[in-house]
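I have been asked to look over a protein record a colleague put together. Alongside the sequence sits a line of tokens, each denoting a local backbone shape. Please read both lines and tell me whether the tokens look consistent with the sequence. I do not need a full report, just your reasoning and any doubts. I have pasted the whole thing underneath without changing anything.
>
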Amino acid sequence: MHRIIGGLLTVGLTVALSTSATPERNNTAALPSLDRYVTLLDLHPVDMTASQSGQAMVAAMPMVIRQGQASPDQRQIQVPMVIRQGQASPDQRQIQVPTVVTPSRQPDEGMGAAGGKAGTGFFIGDDGTLLTAAHVASGCGRMQIISRYVPRTWVSLVASDTVHDVAVLKAPGLRSPAVVHLASVAPSSGKLFVLGYPASASLTVPAETWAVMENDKFPSNIGSLGNPRDLLWMSAPAVAHGYSGGPIFDPRSGAVVGMVKGQVDGGYLRLVRDMPTTGIAIGPGIGGIGDLVRREVPYAAVSLVSSPGEAGVDTLRRATVHVLCWH
């Protein structure tokens, strides 16, 4: 009898321990890989032509017509010719200066097909160094930036971290109109300010929105997935295609704490307890961004001064640019 009672107690204790050790719904083991649930938020020509501002964006892409080629638009910038008295008029075929064509308001069909994609970037150095998302800069044969404070300027890719989705670009010879400070400490909660160039924005003025951090919906033992230094989770319904590479700014610290990457599908979000199932955007936190900047950007070029409050928001507006990519 004692053996039977002892055996029953052992079984009961084992069941109790196994029940208490059952993982919660949002434990790491219950969550699938995040990558296949994320939609990247770069803006493609198909999306750009869907609105008037998008058409203007595609039409604004530059085109150079070499001598002897047919011009798709007659509004050309003519290079003046100076003939000294007594000189013969030079042969027109010897003039090799290309004609720069001002794009028409209605783009040619071929232009849209060759457009590429667009996203957002922001200056971190006064020597023309800026950041954007790696997927915005990927596969680009040529890249330009433009904003209300920056004329159309060619940029080159300096370095790219595809793991964290961060890229460093450089505009040679350009002095940045404003430079933002990169945070050293990640925020734990609160509201963040986000800038980007969706189809609803103009070619030179970004859209603005506020986001609310949702990292606290993850348990503390989940690791880098819920750590805001590695990955920011935000409730930001207005963040859409075109925001990729846009700065995520904490007005309390006066520094950029992350960068927009993509939106998360509701199928994944339903696995996380208390997480909203729509309007969730994610992006690399200051950990991955800071690592790439420390490796690739001269220390002297980076801003060390934070700017909290409205002054910091105004600095961010002047530092944010539209990134245009041609394949």
